[in-house]
Amino acid sequence: MPDWSDRIRQQLAGLNLAPAREAEIVEELAQHAEDRYRELVSGGATEAEARRIALDEMGGHELLAGELRAVERADAPEPVVLGAGSKARLLTGLGQDLRYGFRTLRKNPGFTAVAMLALALGIGANTAIFSVVNGVLLQPLAYPDADRLLMIFDSQSSVAYPDFLDWRRENRFFTDMGTFRSDDFNFTGAGQPEQVSGEYVSASLFPVLGVAPFLGRNFLPEEDRQGAACAVILSYGFWKGRFGADPNILGKALTLNAASCAVVGVLPADFRFSERAQVYVPIEQWNSAELRTRESHPGLRVIGRLKRGATIEAAQAELASICNGLARMYPKTNAGHGAKVVRMKDAIVGYIRPTLLLLVGAVGFVLIIACANVANLLLARSTARQREFAIRAALGADRKRVVRQLLTESVLLSLGGAMIGLLLARWGTSLVLAAAPGSLPRSGEIGIDPYVLLFTLAVSVVTGVLFGLAPAFHGANANPQEFLKEGAHGAGGGRHRVEGVFVALEVGLAVILLAGAGLMIESLWRLWQVDAGFNTRDILTTQVALSPKVMGSPPGIRLAYQQLLGRVAAIPGVQSAAITSVVPLSERNSEISFWPGTGPQPPQDQTKSAMFYVVTPDYPSVMQIPLRRGRFFTDRDDLASPLVVVIDDVLARHMFPGKDPVGRQISLMVFGPVQIVGVVGHVKHWGLDSDDTAKIRDQIYFPFIQVPDKFMSEAVAGLTLMLRTGPEPLSLVSAVRAQVAGPTQDQPIYAVRTMEQIISGSLAERRFTMLLLMIFAATALLLAAVGIYGVMSYAVTRRTHELGIRAALGASRGEIVGLVLRQGMRLAAVGMAGGLVAALALTRFLAGLLYGVHPADPATLAAVALLLGGIALLACYIPARRAAAVDAVVALRCE
Amino acid sequence: MLHIEDQSIDREWKKGSAELLILSLLEAVPRHGYEIGKLIEQRSQGALRFHAASLYPLLYRLEKRGWIQGRWVEKSGQRRRRYYRLTPQGRKVLASQRQGWQTFVQAINRIAGVANA
């Protein structure tokens, strides 16, 4: 039979018809020619004659084209002439592709909505995670030349102020160094006394960071000297919130810790050095003897700015030699101490990098699943469009052109998905950050910026191409002859194989994500079961600021606390009350050096370090820490009696293996010899997860009343009130506030938290990871379920005829349901098997975040397989039931 | 122009009447292009014939004006075909064209003195 289409297409060339319109006309005319030809042949004409006549009646090139031009011209898209040559043709084609793509998508709103939603989930999740990675890991810190900012740590402990001064003076590779330490300040003289957070800083700190105040100036070197008049720089937020952004704030005086400090500057709004500091005070204003010793010192942190051209290695080597010199000069305190130099950004965010990279991987899987899903949808649709592709191929559209058209459509889809995804990302990021506060450093810098937008654009284009490729090549391979045949049924097995692969891939990736989420859930659950060494339930903790009136006198401080404890303990619902210098699991800690016996202090490297708690007698009863031996403190352990300590059983085992420590003596740095009167259980101070592997685990308790006068003002700084309550702890807050305020009404409480909130905070990072993995896994599960359902549904529709025959031949409903289920579950099983193998290989990257559960935990993997299997079964069951309902007669009549 | 070729006359006549012919044929039932062409030939006993090259552009023009509407219809055992049916607007046009044609033919008859059949 002659190929009419070809001849007709030739005649239409040059009309520039829209591809679909052209296809229609060719089809209709070819059919006319065909009819005419058959008529002529059946009327007795030879085939050659019939063919000639039929073609003649098409009127030859000029006639048909001329007539058509007059009719179709108005409707045909004008070619866009953007220039000459192939570039112009390309752009013209692109414009056509875009227009056509839009039209196709609009014509199938259901398909478009489902595909865009899947992509929005995938792209949105990726955008959200990238915005976190971008803000936290990629963007430089918000200081000029931030990559030259280094943090310098003491290799053994935090940095002593005299060591900092020596480092600063002796080095040649840093332009300068600055130091800081956070502290709370009692802010009075502006109405009610209140506690404000602040930082003691060296005058050099802000210049090192490269930060200039928004108002006023930086500290002058002479303000950072002992005995200088107190100056203060305010944070932008504090200036705005507390002083109504008073433009005349400079020179005004604030009373901080009973000293009058003149405001010399206000920091810029975007200064994010400390999340909470409201005031900055020169460190030399800190009236503490401890600051100036190398022995028992408050820990400082040090930042240096590397000179241009200097390397970190050189700076590290130089500091090492400075430290060696100090160790020779001060062997008692500095032997064995070195310095470690780390880029400031790494010091702040380095620890979170593995977690974030893990999440990047996980969220990538979600995107692949979404892609596989949409690719399957497109494949199903491309079968429905076979005729269109076939006609276009018949009309001479080359493969490249069809592929391009289909890819344009899929990129359009993914760009649409990306737009919704951006909204999801914005909304989701703030939701997750709110759900897991404090879990991320630099969280204030997370947001949608041009980099994030660029990322989203790139991801959506790549995604569009990725999920569009298989359907596009499938479409381009359409064989005109096969598909233009009457009653053609569509593609052969190739497409279904690809579909099956996609579904198995989705299931496999979902297994990996579920396994990850499952392991994290299991870890957190186990962590909550960990015995912290004390009863974590029903404890209220709060910081207390004593009345400025008593702060000057150590006896006054002791009395004020005793009275305060008496008042608080009398509150109905409070079972016991105590005070401690450090709350376990709260990220604060205090260490002390000690040695056995009562001799003089041996060199630093022969002393040991222990956690140091200054507490009142009821502390064990509030915490419900078990007493192993001896006794705890009583009110009789006062200044008049010998100094006593209670140690924990870890220290007891370390120092007195097999012996009873009670009655023995040890020596504490600064305090001197003390007698051990009791042994209590160990408390997991460093975290439910990390305490077992912490460097310093020994614990020493010291009675608050025995703190010598000269250390009293420092001891008071961090004291926390701890209450064991009968009812829910937070229900007592207002009663506690009223009782703490006291007769003079000038003692505020602040930073009120329950012990469970503190623990929950200590697990914030893990919870953040778990939360995200759970969200990703749930999304993956949903997409995989939709994927299986879609493919099985389609398979059932396609097999209606076959199933009808089976039913007619006597297959029972159960057999047909089984048949469909088996087909679907085979795909799911292949995916699950692959997924489990991959999960075994990949979950080890989670190992650092797991607790008490092996990355290849069989129970978790089995649970994941069961869950996914159940979901897959459900997703297959719905189409299977529909298959069983196929009426044999109807199914067969369809044909 | 003094001399007019036969063929041209034929063509002009056809053009003027073609729209009316097609609309009339679609009045009762939807038909596809080949059928329309065939019917015109049969019912005019071969006097009027439309080749594809002019029939289809004409169909498209009528469709564009909204007088007829084409739809692909698949019938079992056949390739799909495009069937055209009269739209309500086409129906009005058909009535008014019929009227006009009648008036025109009557006027010609009166002048040319052709006897009424």
Give a short overview:
Chain A is of the alpha+beta class and about 900 residues long. Chain A contains 30 helices and 21 strands.
Largest interface, counted with CB-CB under 8 A? A-B, 25 and 18 residues
Helix content of chain B: 55-70%
| Order of strands across the main sheet of chain B | 1-3-2
Q: H/E series of chain B, N to C? A: HEHHEEH
Radius of gyration based on Cα positions of chain B:
16 Å
N-C termini distance of chain A = 27 Å
Low-confidence stretches of chain A: 74-85, 486-493
Strand coverage percent of chain A = 5-15%
Total number of domains of chain B:
1
Tell me the span between the first and last alpha carbons of chain B: 32 Å
CATH fold topology of chain B? Arc Repressor Mutant, subunit A
CATH superfamily of chain B: Winged helix-like DNA-binding domain superfamily/Winged helix DNA-binding domain
State the low-pLDDT regions of chain B, or none: 1-9
Q: Helix/strand-derived class of chain B? A: mainly alpha
- Number of H- or I-type helical stretches of chain A: 30
Write a concise keyword list for the protein shown above.
heterodimer, A: alpha+beta, 5 domains, 6-stranded mixed barrel, 30 helices, B: 117 residues, mainly alpha, 3-stranded antiparallel beta sheet, globular
Description:
The complex is a heterodimer of chains A (about 900) and B (about 120). Chain A folds into five domains: about 5-80, no CATH class; about 90-145 and about 350-490, no CATH class; about 155-335, no CATH class; about 495-530 and about 765-895, no CATH class; about 545-745, no CATH class. Chain A has 30 helices and 21 strands. Chain B has helices spanning about 5-25, 35-45, 50-65, 90-110; strands at about 30, 70-75, 80-85. In chain B, helix 1 (about 5-25) packs across helix 4 (about 90-110). Mean pLDDT of chain B is about 80; it is low at about 1-10. The chains are: A alpha+beta (about 900), B mainly alpha (about 120). The interface of A and B includes residues 63 and 487 of A.
